[in-house]
């Protein structure tokens, strides 16, 4: 069974936050029509590397979607969009606040003729407040949420989290909000408006940090790989790299001392006797642990940690991650056939459902790939469609490819 079969989504988003949200909805079976400007399309299409003049990074969050390239500023383009919106269940957009209203495609405009519409706006700072009109990319949100001052190593420059964490946080917030709104719609028939932002969605993920700040006024700072509340819980140097150790509970700590590093005397050492003392002496603890761990390889210590039942693992580079046998067995690397790029790979679905599994059915579309298909589905004649192309209302990048 396909969970979201028959759910129709118009996706006006670009870059990452919105496309990530609608990618997951598409993986669950929703029909997602990606509405794109032309001739360049989603701005992420400019990101390299290119394969046959198509952006590989842009293809990643846009699988399972259709592409309709349309000029929303033209009267006929807007008319086509509004006709699609009449039958849609969900609309997502990530323009700066106020743009959709100027275009006449905002929630209030759509709600007048489609009261069941679920309309989700994703922006940098939200639709209201003193910063609402500011542009907001992931790096801006990482700075204002404090992420950059709590990432990296002590006494170093502020560091960006390695992935676009605020983008993904906002996409996730939009995703669960849309699903909740859709459940409400199933129960009542009512649609609603959703407003989320990169800043708020990212800030909501600071769970331990807010507890420490509201509890004692502690301002989180960069700690490298260390946990702020537990140790040993970090990456430690080995003879050929690093190994992660998660032995923060007293039981795991004692097992680590006895069965992994074979230092039972540490259990009675007043510096390390309990978690409080270990945290107070964390620099000395790191030095003592690494003095042992640097005598052998990461693989050796992972095997010992596994045998002792202590969570631990290697610190991989990304290429090592994508060739790990466990992740391959879990089908987290998937082969796809792209109509222009040919054979490509993508990351698989992270959740395995027994009754309504997610599925990667198609690669990301090229710009305007489904323009003709969508227009035909709206009962426009071939003559009308050709006139739309001739008048610059709609677009297809590769006319000879059947778009």
Short account of what is shown:
InterPro entries: CoA-transferase_III_domain, CoA-Trfase_fam_III, CoA-Trfase_III_dom3_sf, CoA-Trfase_III_dom_1_sf. By secondary structure, the protein is of the alpha/beta class. 39% of the residues lie in helices and 16% in strands.
Number of strands: 14
What is the count of distinct domains? Answer: 2
Overall geometry:
elongated
The spatial strand order of the largest sheet comes to 8-7-6-1-2-5-14
What would you say this structure looks like, in words?
This is Crotonobetainyl-CoA:carnitine CoA-transferase CaiB-like acyl-CoA transferase. Keywords: Transferase. The chain is an alpha/beta fold and 403 residues long. The chain folds into two domains: 271 residues, Crotonobetainyl-coa:carnitine coa-transferase, domain 1 (Rossmann fold, 3-Layer(aba) Sandwich), CATH 3.40.50; 83 residues, formyl-coa transferase, domain 3, CATH 3.30.1540.10. It contains 18 helices and 14 strands. The strands form four sheets. The chain has a seven-stranded mixed β-sheet, with helices on both faces. Strands 9-10-11 form a three-stranded antiparallel β-sheet, with helices on one face. Strand 12 and strand 13 form a beta hairpin. It is elongated. The model has no long low-confidence stretch (mean pLDDT 97).
Write the layout of secondary structure elements.
Elements: E1 8-12, H1 17-27, E2 31-36, E3 50-51, E4 54-55, H2 56-59, E5 65-70, H3 75-87, E6 90-93, H4 99-103, H5 107-113, E7 118-123, H6 138-144, H7 165-188, E8 192-197, H8 198-203, H9 207-216, E9 233-237, E10 242-246, H10 250-260, H11 265-268, H12 275-280, H13 282-293, H14 298-308, E11 312-314, H15 318-321, H16 325-329, E12 333-338, E13 342-347, H17 371-377, H18 382-390, E14 394-395
Parallel strand pairs: 1-2, 1-6, 2-5, 6-7, 7-8
Antiparallel strand pairs: 3-4, 5-14, 9-10, 10-11, 12-13
């Amino acid at each position: 069974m396909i969970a979201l079969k028959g759910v129709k989504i118009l996706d006006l988003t670009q870059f990452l936050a919105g496309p990530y949200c609608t990618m997951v909805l598409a993986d669950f079976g929703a029909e997602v029509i990606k509405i794109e400007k032309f001739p360049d399309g989603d701005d992420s299409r400019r990101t390299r590397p290119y394969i046959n003049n198509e952006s590989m990074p842009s293809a990643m969050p846009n699988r399972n979607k259709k592409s309709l390239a349309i000029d929303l500023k033209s009267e006929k383009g807007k008319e086509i969009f509004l006709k699609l919106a009449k039958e849609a269940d969900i609309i997502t957009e990530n323009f700066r606040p106020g743009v959709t209203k100027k275009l006449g495609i905002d929630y209030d405009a759509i709600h007048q003729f489609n009261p069941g519409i679920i309309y989700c706006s994703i922006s940098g700072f939200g639709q209201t407040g003193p910063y609402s009109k500011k542009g907001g990319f992931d790096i801006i949100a990482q700075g204002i949420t404090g992420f950059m001052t709590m990432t990296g190593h002590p006494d170093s420059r502020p560091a960006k989290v390695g992935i676009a964490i605020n983008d993904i946080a906002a996409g996730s917030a939009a995703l669960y909000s849309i699903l909740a709104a859709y459940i409400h719609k199933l129960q009542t028939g009512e649609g609603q408006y959703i407003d989320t932002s990169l800043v708020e969605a990212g800030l909501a993920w600071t769970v331990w940090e807010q507890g420490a700040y509201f509890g004692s006024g502690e301002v989180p700072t960069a700690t490298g790989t260390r946990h702020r509340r537990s140790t040993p819980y970090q990456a430690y140097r080995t003879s050929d790299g690093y190994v992660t150790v998660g032995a923060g509970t007293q039981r795991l700590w004692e097992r680590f001392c006895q069965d992994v590093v074979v230092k039972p005397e540490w259990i009675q050492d007043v510096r390390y006797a309990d978690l409080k003392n270990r945290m107070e002496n964390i620099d000395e603890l790191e030095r003592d642990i690494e003095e042992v761990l640097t005598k052998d390889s990461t693989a050796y210590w992972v095997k010992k940690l596994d045998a002792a039942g202590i969570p631990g693992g290697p610190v991989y580079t990304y290429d090592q991650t994508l060739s790990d046998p466990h992740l391959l067995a879990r089908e987290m690397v998937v082969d796809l056939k792209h109509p222009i790029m040919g054979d490509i790979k993508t990351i698989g679905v992270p959740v395995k459902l027994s009754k309504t599994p997610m599925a990667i059915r198609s690669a990301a579309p090229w710009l305007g790939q489904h323009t003709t298909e969508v227009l035909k589905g709206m009962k426009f004649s071939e003559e009308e469609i050709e006139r739309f192309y001739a008048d610059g209302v709609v677009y297809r990048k590769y006319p000879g490819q059947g778009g």
